[in-house]
Write a structure and sequence with these properties.
alpha+beta; 3 helices; 4 strands
């Protein structure tokens, strides 16, 4: 399982790579933290919770990395309160 962090206009997100797609974990479950350390602490390092989220992911929570959906550039209206703030420099 390849876990990735990525940034959108709405902030930082956590995802899992599946073939040519990234499953946006916050899109599957808004209570999923976007910080991998926090997620691992909550689950005591058990990655089965991530596998369960990926299994539950509908098509709108999957981003095709070879041909990203148009909303990837501006998802604010799609995910107004489920992302982490971007880090400050």
């Amino acid at each position: 399982m390849k876990i990735v962090g990525f940034e959108t206009d709405a902030g930082l997100r956590l995802g899992v790579v599946e073939a040519d797609q990234v499953v946006d974990l916050q899109a599957v479950d808004a209570d999923t933290p976007c910080d991998l350390g926090v997620l691992l602490a909550r689950t005591n390092g058990d990655l089965s919770a991530l596998r369960d989220l990926v299994a539950r992911a509908s098509s709108w929570a999957r981003v095709n990395t070879t041909n990203p959906a148009p909303w990837m550039g501006s998802p604010r209206s799609r995910y107004p309160s489920t992302s982490c703030p971007a880090p400050t420099p």
